[in-house]
Amino acid sequence: MSIKSVIEWTESTWNPLTGCTKISPGCKNCYAERMSKRLHAMGQPNYSNGFTLTIHEQCLDLPLTWKKPQMIFVNSMSDLFHEDVPIEFIQKVFYVIQEAYWHTFQVLTKRSERLVELSNSLNWPDNLWMGVSVESQRFIYRIEHLQRTKSILKFLSLEPLLGPLSNLPLNGIDWVIVGGESGPGARPIEENWVVGIRDQCINSNVPFFFKQWGGTRKKKRGRLLQGQIWDMLPV
Question: How many independent structural domains does the chain possess?
Answer without folding.
Answer: 1
